[in-house]
Amino acid sequence: MKTFDYHRPADVAQAVQGLAAHPDAKLIAGGQSLLPAMKLGLAAPSDVIDLGGIASLRGIRRDGDRLVIGAMTSHAEVAASAEVRQAIPALAALAEGIGDRQVRNRGTLGGSLANDDPAACYPAAVLGLGATVRTDRREIAADDFFLGMFETALQPGEIITAVAFPVVQRAAYVKFRQPASRFALVGVFVAQGAAGVHVAVTGAAPSVFRFTAAEQALTAKFTPEAVDGLSVSPADMSGDMHGSAEYRAHLVQVMTRRAVEAALHA
User: Fold this and answer.
1) pLDDT for 14-44, tens place per residue?
2) C-alpha–C-alpha distance, residues 129 and 193, integer Å
3) Roughly how many angstroms between the first and final C-alpha of the chain, as a whole number?
4) What sequence ranges are listed for the domain FAD-binding PCMH-type (predicted)?
5) Which one in 2, 39, 91, 121 has a CA-CA gap of 20 to 30 Å to 187?
6) What is the value of pTM for the model shown?
7) 92-120 burial, b for 16+ CB within 10 Å, e for fewer?
């Protein structure tokens, strides 16, 4: 690991100033992605700007028909929150299933979204619930946020401050875990609410995506049987030592069916 200068700003404005002053700097939230990358030599920032000291980036609150969660709120805090468990139980359950206890206590919502790992769980919740990502500059709809593998709509120097999740009628998240990392080989978040039915899939492709054929079928009839016979093309899926593209394509339909079953019995 190369040497770097460490900064711990007291507010978002100071963090923004730090990024502007140091073009090769990196933000660190929970450090669950950046620090391993630095140890492997895959990232070598000149400066590391720690968001951990910014109190305004933490917290969970209900705002009308939305649940607003600060970017620096840890997975463990989301999982344990009575507010989240009451408003969107599927989101609490998703957070509780991320990684292991250490990852859940260090990893953050904003860090996960900014990194946009193809197999991360939170992108499925954000896209599945039709959430809005708030930054220091603007608000970004979920459908516009995820652009590709490790690629988001965030501009250089832009910082996620919070995410606003609509409270829906029913939702569920299920994933087929890679046993070592506990990342999703395929994870599916299904939600039914005022905006209709959303089905978001993570782990299967280079980036999280909506399973539109399933959304249409479930809009007509919200039952597990509605997705029987539906499929996605293996040509659009990822393949690796843990599962071929064909295997992941098959799992998308299987996990969608299970997610619908879970949502109906939640």
Assistant:
1) 999 999 999 999 999 999 999 999 999 999 9
2) 8
3) 46
4) 1-170
5) 39
6) 0.95
7) bbbbebbbeeebbebbbbbbbbbbbbbbb
